[in-house]
Amino acid sequence: MAAAVELSGAGIPVTVFESGPVPGGRARRVMSQGIALDNGQHILVGAYAELYRLMGTVGAPESALLRVPLEIRYARGFDLRRLPLPGRAGLLGGLLTARGVPWRERLDAVRFLSRLEAARFTLEHDISVEQLLAEHRQSGRMGHFLWRPLCVSALNTPPPLASAKVFLAVLRDALGGGAGASDLLLPRVDLSQLFPEPAAQFVRQHGGEVRLKETVRDLADLRATFRRVIVAVGPPQLKALIADAPEFSYQPIYTCYLQYGAATRLPRPMLGLADGVVQWVFDRGALLGEQGRLACVISAQGDHQQMDSDELAVRCHHELAAVLPDLGRPEWTRVIAEKRATVTCAVDRRGVSIAPLDGVRIAGDYTDPEYPPTLEAAVRSGVRAASEVLGELRP
Question: What residues are paired with 357 via a beta bridge?
Answer without folding.
Answer: 360
